[in-house]
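Title: Comparing notes on inverse folding

I've been comparing how different people in this forum approach sequence design from structure. To keep things fair, I'm posting one structure and asking everyone to reply with a full sequence. Here's the target:
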């Protein structure tokens, strides 16, 4: 960890200690966690304070923490068959809709991460916060501080359903006007909720439940270091050495 990054974290904590949840270093980066009510104040301080001068916003990303930290990949208890799907079916997208994982009240499922750059001091910092309400995730908009956040926030709204309070034109930007749901949410069906076709009789495009696509989840196969494969590799090595 470089002393420059550590010093930046210490300065942020010293000046904004009461307005932030935590500051930490991870892989030589500075991460600042903030409550939604302090989101604008912390962002403005990092932008305007001469000691920081994070004048450039690089990106705004939505995050869905549904099933975060759950383990679904088998490791030691799989069969010794070489190739294995190696998945137990616990993660989001691999469960029946009626048995989908449900978060407890106040779990703060949805979050926002913002990447800031200081051209003046050649530094970077990441701001993060989680919306307090899972049913209607709301985070203050940063467009007033960095106008470039406009389309980034619209993208997060479109794909995750995160509402940015104070955004001047919050509407979908990637999906169609009649699109149902938010496709980057982990419990969004991989085949979608509706499909579109042109009805000759009605003379217009109509939306209807998906019937033309069979729901399935593809899982990458994993080559495992099982005993039979180790033996095969050893025999292959002997063959090439002898010839």
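Reply #1:
Here's my take.
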């Amino acid at each position: 960890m470089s002393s420059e990054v550590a010093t930046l974290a210490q300065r942020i904590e010293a000046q904004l200690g009461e307005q932030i949840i935590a500051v930490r270093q991870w892989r030589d980066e500075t991460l600042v966690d903030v409550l939604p009510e302090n989101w604008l104040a912390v962002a403005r301080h990092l932008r305007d304070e001469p000691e920081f001068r994070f004048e450039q916003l690089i990106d705004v990303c939505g995050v869905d923490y549904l099933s975060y930290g759950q383990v679904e990949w088998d490791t030691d208890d799989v069969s010794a068959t070489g190739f294995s799907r190696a998945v137990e079916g616990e993660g989001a997208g691999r469960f029946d809709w009626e048995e989908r994982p449900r978060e407890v009240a106040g779990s703060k499922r949805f979050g926002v991460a913002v990447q800031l750059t200081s051209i003046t001091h050649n530094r970077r910092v990441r701001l993060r916060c989680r919306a307090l309400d899972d049913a209607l995730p709301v985070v203050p908009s940063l467009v007033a501080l960095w106008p470039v956040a406009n389309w980034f926030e619209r993208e997060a709204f479109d794909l995750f359903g995160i509402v940015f309070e104070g955004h001047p034109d919050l509407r979908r930007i990637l999906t169609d006007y009649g699109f149902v749901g938010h496709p980057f949410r982990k419990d969004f069906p991989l085949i979608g909720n509706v499909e579109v076709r042109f009805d000759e009789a009605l003379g217009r495009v109509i939306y209807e439940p998906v019937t033309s696509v069979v729901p399935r989840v593809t899982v990458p196969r994993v080559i495992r270091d099982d005993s039979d494969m180790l033996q095969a590799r050893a025999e292959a090595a002997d063959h090439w050495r002898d010839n």
